[in-house]
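Progress note, sequence design subtask.
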């Protein structure tokens, strides 16, 4: 019976969306937070546990960013609000330098949910790529749980997936100690969406629900909508990104992994001397 009710809800929501989505356009603001696990070999006595905690907090703040989702019934642009971007790409504390690699403020993600495609203008080590591919299909499970985000009633949805995570060991300079490995992990992604804004969209590449996703949590990163402006006086402008070398997602992943490996080889530490540089890459 619960399955039948769920199907009815989906059908009604889809019908409502088709009838009313054409009247919707706007800008949604998302705040992001990321869990940071900073692990340094305990034999490195030059970095105290107190300093490690301070570095983890500083790194965590670097991932507290603001993104804007500009949308209409079928298309959207998702990019960082660069007016709020914190200058600097790394942290230096007491002679120890940490650099975190991730999406830059110049990255632009275009989605067309009707066509099921995306274009991601992505800068990687100073070179711009234009990643064109199909949007991922998520096996969403709809739940009866509800909560309010702002003035909107939201419904819970989840899916589980297998992901590959790069794990890097910072050692003494020995090749084995500095090996980078890939591990497979299972994660559950939880979304909260509202049918009061009947567009099948959300932050990053998340979509596929009968309403705008206002919150996403994958266990490591949380994205929550803090403000929505619907049908602004000035019509929203969605410009498809066109700059960069055109590749698909698999090609870009291969190039990224190769570049990261090359960078790690070039900056591999040769000892535990003071002033050592620690590189940390946090994906997702």
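Output:
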């Amino acid at each position: 019976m619960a399955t039948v009710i769920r199907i009815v809800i989906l059908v009604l929501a889809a019908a409502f969306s088709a009838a009313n989505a054409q009247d919707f356009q706007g800008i949604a603001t998302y705040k992001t937070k990321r869990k940071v696990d900073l692990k340094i070999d305990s034999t490195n006595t030059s970095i105290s546990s107190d300093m490690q905690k301070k570095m983890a907090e500083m790194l965590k703040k670097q991932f507290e960013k603001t993104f804007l989702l500009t949308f209409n019934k079928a298309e959207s642009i998702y990019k960082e609000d660069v007016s709020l971007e914190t200058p600097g790409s790394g942290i230096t504390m007491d002679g120890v330098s940490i650099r975190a690699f991730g999406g830059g403020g110049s990255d632009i993600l275009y989605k067309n949910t009707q066509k099921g495609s995306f274009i991601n203008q992505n800068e990687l080590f100073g070179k711009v790529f234009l990643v064109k591919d199909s949007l991922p299909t998520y096996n969403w499970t709809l739940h009866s749980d509800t909560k309010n985000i702002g003035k909107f009633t939201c419904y819970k949805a989840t899916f589980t997936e297998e992901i590959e995570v790069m794990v890097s060991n910072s050692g003494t300079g020995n090749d084995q100690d500095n090996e980078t490995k890939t591990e497979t992990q299972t994660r559950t992604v939880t979304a909260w969406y509202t049918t009061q804004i009947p567009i099948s969209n959300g932050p990053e590449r998340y979509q596929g629900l009968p309403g705008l996703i206002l919150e996403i949590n994958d266990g490591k990163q949380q994205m929550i909508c803090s403000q929505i402006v619907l049908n602004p006086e000035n019509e929203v402008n969605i410009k498809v990104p066109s700059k960069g070398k055109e590749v698909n997602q698999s090609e870009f992943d291969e190039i990224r992994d190769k570049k990261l490996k090359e960078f790690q080889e070039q900056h591999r530490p040769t000892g535990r001397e003071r002033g050592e540089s620690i590189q940390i890459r946090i994906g997702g």
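The longest strand covers residues 152-168. Work on this subtask will continue into the next period as scheduled.
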